[in-house]
Amino acid sequence: MAGEAKTEKTIEVKEFFEKTPPGVEVRVSGIPRKYSGPPPPLMYAPSRPMELPDIDLYCPTRPKCDGIRSFRPLKDFTLNPGESKDEFISYLCRNCRETLKTYAVSAVFSDGETDASLRKYGERPSFGPPLPSKLIELIRPEWEYFKRGRRSENQGLGIAAFAYYRRVIESQKNRILDEMIKAARKLNATQEAINELGDAKEERQFKKAIEGVKACLPEMLLIGGVNPLTLVHNALSEGLHAETDEQCLQVATDIRIIMTELAERLSQVLKDEAELKSAVTRLLAKSSKNDADGR
Fold it and tell me: Residue ranges per domain, the chain?
């Protein structure tokens, strides 16, 4: 289970905060201690603050950040050698000084000066890179369920992640197809391809709907030269009962990656059209105003 995971690999403390998911116990090395003077003999050493490093995380604050930024710890972590302790550790974005990242951590220090076993109980905001806004817009009505799938994926719960992603994609089939039809028209796709996408909307079963789209889509909408709906269909068709939790986790990750890429491509195609329409509207409005002013 994810909550009992443990690795013998030794990592730096920076990597622990940035890249290790909750529920995984790791060995951490290279943790410096701060002293007000020469270090006393270890057996007589009092509690001393542990110097936490700056870390690099995504900061969502707009317009100041919205990208990877440096975060600093708000306080040191005090612990006796050989002692175990549960602690909340908070980091603040150095750039905007608004975004806070908080970890609930369990730490067990060895008798040495720089080694420890660390585990995250959890973190807020949740672990993992944020899902792109373009994907959010594509599946907006079921966004909360997709987020639950992402949390399950981050925690190594493959069957749960797979189930959430499948629910979202199947329930939002028509919304996804609508965006693909718009993009296909913009890219001058064949009428056959557009008709098949339209017919897929009328088919209630996701499997039959996607199997009916056989015409070649514009290259801009293909991923690895393949219709992304075919890739997603192939992943979803395996079902929950045929795979282990680890296998479902890999499939769920692949589904998220494909859907993210599809959302990016659809957004790029339709963004160009939206920008053009906005430019035309502004220029027409300006022309009408000039006519009204007699210019």
Answer: 2-124, 133-277
